[in-house]
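Hey, quick one: can you model this chain's 3D structure?
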Amino acid sequence: MGWIFAIGLILIALLWFATWLRRRAIRALLLTSGAQTSGASSMYRRGRGTPRIAVSYTDNTGAERVIVKALVSAGDAQLLEKPAVVLYHPKYLGRSDYVLLGFGKQPHRWFQGEFVRVSKPQSRPSR
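Sure thing. Here's the predicted structure for all 127 residues.
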């Protein structure tokens, strides 16, 4: 019965390794041939959770997109003060795994993000 557990652990390790390889390949592709644009960063608050950094940018088709930095870290307040840079693949505009966020004029560290839908403020009905 222990061999089933061992096979399960091996399969989980292989899945983790395959995911890691895919993310590394996508990052290398973006750093070599991705389109780069500047963005405007702001705080993104949703519910009671920890606020995250949202970056709004315009891609090469003219569509306005908002992507949120996936992980929250202790240095996020300092990142808001720096200019945001977005690196994306023009072929996969709607996929957040093909988008990287950087902060500063020449970013040395790139972060993953996820797309969010920002609803436009609704006007209050008149009484």
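One thing worth noting: The chain has two helices and six strands.
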